[in-house]
Amino acid sequence: MRSPALQRAALLAAVLLCLAAKTEHADSVKGFDKKSYTVSVQAGQKLTVWLKSNSSFAFFNVTPPGSGDAIWVGSQEGKEKAFAQKLEQAGDYEVEVYLARAEARRQGKADYTLTILLD
Known about the structure:
The longest helix is centred in the N-terminal third of the chain and has 18 residues, at 4-21. The protein has a single domain, classed as Jelly Rolls (Sandwich). The strands form two sheets. Strands 1-8-3-6 form a four-stranded antiparallel sheet. The chain has a four-stranded antiparallel sheet with strand order 2-7-4-5. The protein starts with a helix and ends with a strand. Mean pLDDT is 88; it is low at 11-20. Strand 4 and strand 5 form a beta hairpin. The chain is built from two helices and eight strands; from the N terminus they run αβββββββαβ. It is α+β, with helices and mostly antiparallel strands. It has helices spanning 4-21, 101-105, and strands at residues 22-30, 35-41, 46-53, 58-63, 72-73, 82-86, 91-99, 109-118. The radius of gyration is 17 Å and the shape is globular.
């Protein structure tokens, strides 16, 4: 039987592991500004990204390491504001939040919460 201190340490380690796998970023974009987030992924992990915004013109892209081509282009996915995919390539993926071009030209602004989850 484990001591209470050891049980608390194990529970704390489990909680920290869960928290490290999920992050939330609350911010805003205006005009042509973009906000980028780097996510370090191991091969075989599932990356899930959700975008919640007060603007229907806010989108995000997901770009794999060493590539200029996004594997998810939010503005081409319509109203879908969630990405989930098991990734075969390890490395640093970039998640970039931005406004649609027409809204950016009008200097529109969007507040958002971006949630990133690694399984």
